[in-house]
Specification:
Helix 1 crosses helix 2. By secondary structure, this protein is an alpha/beta fold. The strands form two sheets. Strands 3-2-1-4-5-6-7-8 form an eight-stranded mixed sheet. It has a two-stranded antiparallel sheet with strand order 9-10. It has helices at 13-24, 36-57, 65-70, 95-108, 124-128, 162-174, 190-206, 212-223, 229-236, 238-252, 261-268, and strands spanning 5-9, 28-32, 72-75, 86-89, 114-117, 137-141, 151-156, 178-183, 281-283, 289-292. Helices cover 45% and strands 16% of the residues. It has eleven helices and ten strands.
Amino acid sequence: MDIRNIGVVGAGTMGIGVSHAFAEAGFTVALVDIDERALERAKTEIERNVRFYPLLRKEAPARPASDVLQNISFSTGLAALGNAQFVVENATENWGVKQGIFPGLDEVCPEECVLAVNTSAIPITKVAALTGRPDRVIGTHFMNPAPLKPLVEVIRGYHTSADTVRLTQDILAGIGKESIVVEDSPGFVTNRVLMLTINEAIFLLHEGVSSVRDIDRLFKKCFGHTMGPLETADLIGLDTILYSLEVLLENFDDPKYRPCVLLKQLVDAGLHGRKNGKGFYTYDERGQIREEADRG
């Protein structure tokens, strides 16, 4: 099947990145969010990122920003996905939110449309059970920022068909992404490991063992990581880290996933990381670190 029409649900950080990646590769994208202000921010962010990301890749822009934006329509209703052939859902890591989205997608999307769940931890099989097409529900765990990261973790649910897996990998290859298929388990491979690492780094900070900068420097200098665990937490979003740990704790019933009280406090204080300018670090308008954040 020739896939050209992509649906994206959620105009947050990941929805913006996924829409950008598909539109830049020439796909027609319908981006849906219930918040018109989020859609306006998405337009601004995509236009900025189309110009900015090539500087990070040290290459010329693949397409002018105007061409990329022409490939994206913005809507507040799921009805805009009536012609979608492949949908990527990027709503917040909250089961209650996803419960409300997927029955609606199942109703409005064509029967052959694949529904991809871009989630950090929620089991794909659990999401598929909300639909009448569990064989066409699959996990696509994009990394942030989606246009720059070369690999996507693809998660096969209990009912996901081999055709759906092949189709998904072909589509990802069409936007220049490699993919690795893993079996369905809360957190999959990447976040089973990453969330524990980040949470333990937050515990170390909370206990006064080391500072934000020094924790991150140890991982970058000793292990060659591009980013330390606390900078990575800011990039992902501290609210997303907390939601993911809570999902892992609920599903595995293992106290090793218990979120650090400092993480809960920062999320309650509205410090969500790079996306709103302050987390473990403070950020300028281009998302660059200015300094370690003062947490009072």
